[in-house]
Amino acid sequence: MRSITRFDIQYAHRFYKFQGEAQYLHGHTGVLTIEVEDTIEPGVNMVYPCNEIQKVAWNVLKNFDHALILREDDPLLPAILDVYDKQGIRNGAPSNKMKGEAFRTEWATAYPDARLVVTKETMTVEGMIKIVYDLLKDKLNIARITFTSGVNAATQEYTPTRTLDRCPLCGVELVNGVCPKCGYRKH
Ligand SMILES: [Zn+2]
Ligand SMILES: [Zn+2]
Q1: Residue 172 Cα, ligand 2 centroid: separation in angstroms?
Q2: pLDDT at 187 over 90
């Protein structure tokens, strides 16, 4: 069975060199849906607690929220960083609080202090799914990711490779047989 969690992500981007309106900087509220698949853990009668999926995923997804997402070769990137530099906000500001954990993968690099994500490829809905899967595949048993942004939507199915050993009291994954949340020990 699957547990399904939804995230709203507000961001600005553009499709550099794309022939259409999307080549201009604009914003969206993107909707990301993550489906996690596993057996039902009988103790909690759940696949995986959705609020835990929220926590694990939002830790990285926060980087995309109220952020600017640009392709690495986009000339807007140095221009914007120059403005942020002159304003003294490139390396953070007291009001920049809801920051995610910085990351660097093959597909994207997050700069939480500048609320910026630099991508290797254009950040289309398809591109976002690739980025998100890569960031979360080792943390969650992902069976499907769907991303909707404006009129664009894409979805990708994955084959979960593991069955997580979960806490019968909390439903979260046990670490070396111990629940990181409540301390339950598997006998
Ligand atoms: Zn767009
Ligand atoms: Zn527990």
Answers
A1: 6
A2: no
pLDDT (tens digit per residue) in 114-148: 999 999 999 999 999 999 999 999 999 999 999 99
Task: For residue 174, report the distance from its CA to the centre of ligand 1, in Å.
Answer: 39
Q: How many domains does the chain have?
A: 1
In a domain, 42, yes or no: yes
Provide the domain limits for residue 33.
Answer: 2-157
Question: Could you tell me the two tokens for 76?
Answer: 């807007």
Give residue 177's pLDDT: 95
Q: What is the pLDDT of residues 144-168, one digit of tens each?
A: 999 999 899 999 999 988 888 999 9
Q: Which ligand is nearest to the CA of 122?
A: 1
Measured CA to CA in angstroms, residue 86 lies from 77, 110, 113 at distances of: 14, 21, 15
Strand order in the sheet with 116-119: 108-111, 116-119, 67-71, 2-13, 26-37, 142-149, 152-157
- Domain of 87, CATH number, reads 3.30.479.10
Task: Please give the distance, rounded to the nearest whole angstrom, from the Cα atom of residue 24 to the centre of ligand 1.
Answer: 9
DSSP letter at 62 equals G
- pTM of the entire predicted model: 0.92
Residue 68 Cα to ligand 1 middle (Å):
11
Measured in Å, residue 23 CA sits from the centre of ligand 1 at: 9
